[in-house]
Amino acid sequence: MASQQMLKFVTVERGMPEKREADARREDFKEIYAEYADAKAKEQSSRCSQCGVPYCQTHCPLHNNIPDWLRLTAEGRLREAYEVSQATNTFPEICGRICPQDRLCEGNCVIEQSGHGTVTIGAVEKYITDTAWEEGWVLPISPPRERTESVGIIGAGPGGLAAADVLRRAGVQVTVYDRYDRAGGLLTYGIPGFKLEKDVVMRRNKQLELGGITFELNCTVGEDVSFEDIRTKHDAVIIATGVYKTREIEAPGVGAQGLVRAIDFLTASNRKSFGDAVPEFDDGTLNAEGKRVVVIGGGDTAMDCVRTSVRQGATSVKCLYRRDRANMPGSQREVQNAEEEGVVFEWLSAPKGFVGDPVTGVMVQKMRLGAPDATGRQAPEVIEGADYVEEADIVIMALGFEPEDLPALWDQPELPVTRWGTIKAAFTTGETDLDGVYAVGDIVRGASLVVWAIRDGRDCAEAILQKLDAGAQIAAE
């Protein structure tokens, strides 16, 4: 039966879910891809070659059992497909939407390498889990027994929530502390709705809360509660704060009005989508409407900023990146979507300074790619005499994120950090040199992918459970 359902990549062409027309999607913040219909999901899943060494699974940070849930989907066994999918992934409906599949699972699909077009893994993953929610298969956590041990988690982003989910399923008492008024971290306030509609995140937050996880929101560690108090209260503490400090640029005119940080711009936009009062948006400071926008950077955050600016009604949107298209760190799929929506990319262009206060333009220096740098990427070099001014009313800095100085902010000088300011933690467990203190996600890795944060959170939770079980066994003896 399975062999009849699968291996149809030779006769069935790759088909993504229908994408809304660019003119229509420029007008709102709704997701741009429609859902698969059931027949289409089965058809596309049946293209999987069920290869003996599934590179899609190998190149997924969570090692999701992709071939099995594709086969189950093709056979119409959706509930089983969901169970297999969620066994390794805490938030499959989120990964299906925002993972850069073109760089991970789909980019390593065997049939893609043979010229047949990759299986649409991300779209099927999204379909499976959205169906599970609609059918009521996603239930609140109900541990088989309650445990007395408790774990405090600082940060309600994907890493912290993934750890909370695993720990709570084992009956551990879990409290999540977060500085924001809603859980989700960058899933809530950093990623725009056209990639991840907010009701998807809020729905998952509610499921975790109904499962017995306690959320202490509007709670800034180091101000509202001390790190030491959290550590005293719990048997273990997981630091999952992410990295929110914007990487700065040194150039003439940096302090000018109209230069804004990407995280501030995106957070203001997402808050408006929730209906919050956002004075900085209403007064135009963090609003692109009617403005010439220049975004500096080439990662996914820069793509979020340019596409948000389009939807806010900017008169023009340009993105400056110092390397070429092939060497940009952001998703090529996102670049294509941005171009369709009217964004202009100025490749091999870097800011040299800023004109005016309020800003009226960016001094741009043209670049060429020279010899490879220490990472193996070609290093950009300035082309002398090729400078020009790019007119702008608002300039959004999307140059990446760095960790905050947690030892100073939390009065914990013994908290071990690297020379980059990230927390030193064991690779697989997240354990630090401080007894009972763990760290996961971007605060350990530096700015990375949501799927890696989920992996770290799950691995760390398993390590804590092993330690708690070992402690309980010693106590019993």
UniProtKB/TrEMBL annotation:
Its EC number is 1.4.1.13. This is Glutamate synthase (NADPH) small chain. The keyword 4Fe-4S applies. SUPFAM superfamilies: alpha-helical ferredoxin, Nucleotide-binding domain. Residues 25-136 form the Dihydroprymidine dehydrogenase domain. Residues 151-457 form the FAD/NAD(P)-binding domain. It holds the Pfam family Fer4_20. One of its GO terms (molecular function) is glutamate synthase (NADPH) activity. InterPro entries: DPD_II, FAD/NAD-bd_sf, FAD/NAD-binding_dom, GltD-like, Helical_ferredxn. It is an enzyme of class 1 (oxidoreductase). It comes from Roseobacter litoralis (strain ATCC 49566 / DSM 6996 / JCM 21268 / NBRC 15278 / OCh 149). The keyword Oxidoreductase applies. Keywords: 4Fe-4S, Iron, Iron-sulfur, Metal-binding, Oxidoreductase.
